[in-house]
Recover the amino acids of this structure.
């Protein structure tokens, strides 16, 4: 007659009702268990053989009552279910604590304390030349505390913890008092603590023990195959937790190192370019393109004379403060830094990001105005501190036009910059600007004249340009001019009237206005 094999797989129980349902099913499977005569639990234990041994002990006449056997099957299956539940709990802790092993160790000894009543459970790790406990549990807190105080132990073969780690082998002694090693230092420690039986389960990685899981009992007797199996599972889970933590921490450390390096490298490239490279939006290769940009140059007036009156430390501090303040303003307005050239600054608007040519020009001019205002404030502070005894002024030049922008250099070393005729013009405008002034080209002025007041200057002949260049001196925004009693400005279709009241020749100005009025009245 064919024999049907019944295999049960248990999951973590949610409520007591789940166990009650299990009890009902057990009655229906009792007959099947008698027929095939052998049931293995999920931890690999031979439940039927253990049950028969206990049945013979309980019934000297041989055989057992059906009710007693049913109770035994139920108890054994509940134990298997408890072992499965403990394993699931530890796996859950492992998954929820990838960077910390302590919760896993605590869960192991907590579960072990439930599965091995009357036993003390410990997880111990080698730390140099000693073995110390990282987690200890016992259903009796006093016993647990007493056992915890026995640690650490020397890492040598005189102690069972040391032997299990150094040999990488399991130790299961049913009665320490009657064992061959009863006179060892470790065995004496167990007996002095009131324990008789001991099991040491090494935590193996690649055949080498990295720790040990210990179960010590006050009552002599060996562990069953199922109990040893669950200890092996616990030991393996502890190794998984240790390896997970190591990998997570290594990845975290590597990530921190990369972030630190990236943060340092970001100081050497424009923020916009750095971000586009990090986001994998820009290819780091020798390539360039034509694009309409607004270019900015600035330089400190008479910097050579300033260096003569300052010690090198003072000069360094002053220059760094100036460049730091100017850089902060440039970043605020979205400038792409090209380079610092000593005390000079070169930056541009329009690449790698651009809201539009007109918007780029406006951002550049507003940046220049903000820089001049901040430099005026810094100058007062430096003079009060006695660092300078002369005006600290900067010239600034702005131009808008088509440039070649991209990476220039070699495959091993390249520079992200701009080149072209319009770049040279911006540099020439800066050199012709008045100290503390901003000089711009006609192209830039045409893009900002609806909100900016600038006076056209006499065309300037510049090196490298065949024709004189129209230039405009920035005075301020129209809103600022309206609030300044020293200026009068009116602009409309077909008419522009700008009067600097402090410098205007009143007689000539009145005559010019009268002539203009007479022509309008004809």
């Amino acid at each position: 007659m064919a024999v049907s094999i019944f295999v049960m797989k248990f999951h973590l129980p949610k409520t007591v009702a789940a166990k009650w349902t299990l009890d009902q099913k057990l009655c229906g499977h009792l007959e099947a268990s008698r027929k095939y005569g052998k049931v293995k639990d999920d931890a690999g234990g031979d439940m039927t053989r253990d049950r028969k041994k206990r049945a013979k002990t309980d019934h000297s006449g041989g055989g057992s009552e059906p009710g007693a056997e049913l109770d035994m099957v139920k108890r054994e299956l509940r134990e298997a279910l408890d072992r499965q539940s403990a394993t699931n709990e530890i796996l859950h802790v492992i998954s929820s604590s990838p960077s910390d092993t302590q919760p896993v160790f605590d869960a192991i000894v907590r579960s072990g304390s439930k599965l091995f009543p009357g036993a003390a459970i410990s997880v111990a790790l080698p730390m140099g030349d000693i073995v110390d406990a990282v987690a200890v549990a016992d259903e009796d807190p006093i016993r647990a505390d007493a056992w915890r105080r026995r640690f650490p132990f020397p890492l040598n073969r005189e102690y069972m913890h040391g032997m299990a780690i150094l040999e990488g082998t399991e130790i299961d002694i049913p009665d320490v008092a009657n064992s061959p090693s009863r006179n060892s230092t470790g065995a004496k420690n167990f007996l002095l603590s009131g324990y008789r039986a001991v099991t040491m389960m090494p935590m193996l990685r690649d055949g080498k023990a990295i720790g040990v899981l210990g179960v010590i009992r006050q009552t002599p007797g060996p562990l069953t195959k199922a109990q040893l199996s669950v200890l092996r599972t616990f030991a393996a889970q502890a190794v998984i937790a240790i390896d997970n933590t190591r990998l997570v921490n290594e990845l975290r450390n590597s990530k921190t190192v990369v972030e630190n390096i990236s943060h340092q490298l970001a100081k050497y490239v424009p923020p916009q370019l750095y971000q586009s490279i990090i986001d994998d939006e820009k290819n780091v290769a020798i390539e360039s393109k034509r694009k309409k940009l607004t270019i900015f140059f600035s330089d400190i007036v008479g910097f050579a004379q300033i260096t003569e009156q300052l010690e090198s430390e003072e000069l360094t501090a002053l220059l760094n403060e100036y460049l730091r303040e100017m850089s902060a303003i440039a970043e605020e307005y979205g400038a792409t830094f090209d380079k610092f050239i000593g005390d000079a600054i070169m930056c541009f608007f329009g690449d790698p990001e651009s809201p539009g040519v007109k918007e780029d020009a406006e951002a550049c001019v507003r940046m220049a105005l903000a820089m001049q205002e901040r430099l005026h404030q810094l100058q007062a502070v430096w003079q009060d501190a006695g660092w300078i005894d002369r005006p600290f002024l900067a010239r600034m030049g702005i131009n808008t036009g088509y440039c070649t922008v991209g990476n220039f250099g070699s495959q091993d070393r390249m520079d992200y910059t701009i080149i072209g005729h319009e770049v040279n013009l911006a540099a020439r405008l800066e050199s012709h600007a008045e100290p503390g002034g901003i000089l711009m080209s006609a192209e830039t002025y045409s893009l900002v004249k609806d909100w900016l007041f600038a006076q056209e200057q006499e065309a300037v002949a510049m090196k490298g340009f065949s024709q004189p260049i129209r230039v405009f001196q920035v005075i301020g925004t129209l809103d600022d001019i309206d609030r300044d009693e020293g200026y009068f400005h009116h602009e409309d279709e077909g008419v522009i009237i700008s009067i600097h009241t402090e410098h205007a020749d009143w007689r000539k100005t009145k005559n010019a206005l009268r002539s203009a009025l007479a022509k309008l009245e004809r």
Notes: The first strand starts at residue 119 and ends at 127. Confidence is low (pLDDT under 50) at residues 1-63.
